[in-house]
Every structure is written in structure tokens, then in C-alpha cells.
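Protein modeling request. Please complete all fields; requests missing the sequence field cannot be processed.
Requester role: graduate student
Desired output: 3D structure, C-alpha cell encoding
Chains: 1
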Amino acid sequence: MPKPPRHGGWGTGYQTPKNPEITQFEKQVKRLGLQEHEWRHSIQLRAWVSRYKHHRWVPEDLLIAWGLHDDDPSISDVRNS
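Delivered output (81 residues):
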């Protein structure tokens, strides 16, 4: 009976992200060139958050400040994959 491969994903072309700790929210903030104290005043960031708040992690205090917070705590725990 042949043995199963030891490294099933070896050579498939999949690469680990360079920095998996960076969220899509953080990437968007960087793309917009915002500092943390500017987040609440950014129209572009608020539009992005409104669109992706159920799909991406967003700081809960920012959601509350903009009145976009949902009562479901599991929504604020979503991380990008």
C-alpha cells in the first residue's frame, strides 16, 4: 500500500502572506494615508467601513462613533482572510 504524501501542499504555488497580521482595514487606512487621529473625519474611510463592516474587521470604537455599530458582537470579531 503506498504511503500518503507527507507535505500535501508542497509545490502547489501557495505562498504565505508576508504580514498576516495586517487587516484590510489597516491596508485601507494606509492607502488613504490617514493617521489614527484622522480616521473619524475621513469621508472615504467611513464609506469603506459602511460597505465592508460586516466582512472586515473595523475598530469597534470607530463603528460606535459613526453610529454603525451592530448589537451582534460576532460581527466586530470578523478578520480578513
